[in-house]
Amino acid sequence: MRPRSTMLSEAAKKKAAAAKKPTPAAARGAGEVRIVGGQWKRTRLPVIDRPGLRPTPDRVRETLFNWLGQDLTGWQCMDVFSGTGALGFEAASRGATQVLMNEADMGLVTQLKSIAAKLKADNVRVLRGDGVAAIKQCASGSMHLVLLDPPFESALFKPALEAAAKAVAVDGFVYLEAPREWGEEEVLSFGLERFRFLKAGAVYAHLLRRV
User: Fold this and answer.
1) How far apart are CA 45 and CA 203, in angstroms?
2) What share of the chain has pLDDT > 70, as a percent?
3) Which residues of 36-64 are buried (b: 16+ CB within 10 A; e: fewer)?
């Protein structure tokens, strides 16, 4: 028979190992994100279990809207690959006149519409469809802010940037969230220039404007 102290030691090790294992909810993601500022500050947005769904971290969103000056009153905005809607609802919360939220996944579209209805967000319009095609439907120079956060494993970055560069106003901004840094020469090929940049973990956040 093993000594009691050895048995207790093994039990303690098992307990510690179990504590380190992620719960099913943690393995799926945060479960929810919060709007950082504006009229819906601290409002929680649910995160559905979807492959590749990756809400923009709170820290990155807070920094982005600090760059933009917090108050988006009068702005026309488009959240092209909405997902959870974290970016789009953040813009709407901060006073944007209109936020077009585009998403291809019908389940996410339903959720976005439900959240908009619950918030009574009259300045939010949810669309379903291809993101790049949605940007191309915008009139040239009509958007003050185009939010681009495509699935990281996709090949949508270049066509989305090309379309966004045409849709954004002369004094507007394009936000790009990507799995790598986009250099000056790369964005310049789309007629854009880097205005601000942030790396947070695996996220590379770029705020761009027209040259």
Assistant:
1) 20
2) 85
3) bbbebeebebebeeeeeebbbbeebbebb
**Helix residue spans in the chain (DSSP H):** 4-20, 24-28, 58-68, 86-93, 106-119, 131-136, 157-167, 184-188
Whole-angstrom Cα distance, residue 178 to residue 166? 20
Q: What is the pLDDT averaged over residues 39-55?
A: 84
The CATH T-level fold of domain 23-210 is Rossmann fold (3.40.50)
Q: What is the DSSP string of 26-40?
A: HHH--SEEE--SSTT
Candidates 211, 205, 187; CA nearest to 87 is: 205
Residue located via tokens 């789009």: 88
Alpha helices in 94-205 (DSSP H): 106-119, 131-136, 157-167, 184-188
* Entry pTM: 0.83
Residue 41 near residue 35 (C-beta atoms within 8 A): yes
- In angstroms, rounded to a whole number, what is the distance separating the alpha carbons of residues 206 and 200? 11
- How big, in percent rounded to 5, are the helix, strand and coil portions of the chain? 35, 25, 35
Pairing of strands 168-178, 143-148: parallel
